[in-house]
Amino acid sequence: MLSGATFSITTFGCQMNKHDSERVSGMLQELGMRPVETIPEADVTVFMTCCVREKADERLMGQVASMKNIPLRPASRFSKRYVCIGGCIGQRDGAALLDSLPHVDLVFGTHNLDELPHLLQEVVEEETRQASIIDGRSDFHDALPESREQAWAAWLPITVGCNNFCTYCVVPYVRGREISRPFEEIEAQARSYVSEGVKEITLLGQNVNSYGRDLYGTPRFDEVLDAVSASGVERIRFATSHPKDLSDAVIERFATLENLMPALHLPVQSGSDAILEAMNRRYTAAHYLSLIEKLRQVRPDIALSTDIIVGFPGETEEDFLRTCEIVREVGYTQVFTFIYSKRAGTPADEMEDNTPREVILERFERLRALVEEGALAANKAYEGHLARVLFEGEAKKGSGVAMGKSEHGLTVHVQTESDEAVQALAGKILPVQIDESKTWYLRGSLIS
Ligand code: 5AD
Ligand code: SF4
Prior knowledge:
CATH class of the largest domain: Alpha Beta
Low-confidence stretches: none
Shape: globular
Helix content: 25-40%
Bound molecules: 5'-deoxyadenosine, iron/sulfur cluster
Number of domains: 4
Number of strands: 19
CATH architecture of the largest domain: 3-Layer(aba) Sandwich
CATH topology of the largest domain: Rossmann fold
Oligomer: single chain
Radius of gyration: 22 Å
């Protein structure tokens, strides 16, 4: 029934969702369906959703609502467009979404991704609408087919869920408790990716540093890094790390493992100890800075990025200035800044919060300017240096500019003479001379 039908996937949020979207694409293609780029071309549209901040919720609702106005694609053999919602909002709201969004046909969650093909078939064949959500089950879905966006780059989830209960965060409630994937499975998956020609593996988890605590009593993330490194893959990255669990053994790996890339995303969230405590982060600014010092000792060129929340309940000007201080002190190449967003059911939602909105927006603006200044300064340091770039594709359609990532995780642009030349570079790792730095990318030329 669905064979030959077209589908599009719109993904919000984190890398785990992007990875799940690759599985969704793989499963739908196995049904004989064909992926298309845009929603108007699709018979079936899947939204992979995120509920970490309110904005993502609103954007989803807006996009789904606008689906009503998009006419059927001319060649469609169906009498309607099918709309599916998966990911975290699907998991959180379940059947309630069918009530609030009358043109949504199917809702599924994060734990039952594998059920999507038969749920969708039922919806189409039986002309029904349905929501199917289950609680707590390991969702590594490793047996599911995946259609990777880039054949040479793979995500490898090693844990799902989170036990940390940062007071602002809804993830532990939606994604459940942390479950680690058995060590041997990770090793086997890494080897299998390498045999398929994968050049870069990104290990995924809400907090990869606590990997194995549920299975082996003590975290074994350093051993995971050793095993994945031994697979011979050219590049290893991982996300995300909780500073309280980043061990010396893991830090050491940045010196000893050649294929572990010199880049680390280490969310600090705030530079104020009072706010860190209210967030239940369980580290101090001084501890965070001591980690940065150790990292720089073992790997002086390591590129650091972070997440920061502005306007957490009770944040004073003094607290905010501490955050600015830490940003200056660390010298991040990239900082993801977020305005605190109230999430129902989290402890922070109950905290007194009387900072005026305009004060928070003004702080956010100041931080943004500081981050830009810092990123430009950090990028400047690469001018005149050599970078090894894994090319991904074209920076902008038709521009002839090839885009890729350096070992430090920075975006690098290289002008080529044609679109074909850009395509020929994709998937290759090549040396590039960095000629110029911009705030969010570097410009360079290929070294022949
Ligand atoms: N409000 C704002 N930002 C949040 N994050 C998580 N929850 C919230 C929230 N309620 C941010 C944190 C986290 C990133 C993925 O999203 O900075 O590291
Ligand atoms: Fe959320 Fe904290 Fe867990 Fe990250 S570590 S997912 S911010 S609860």
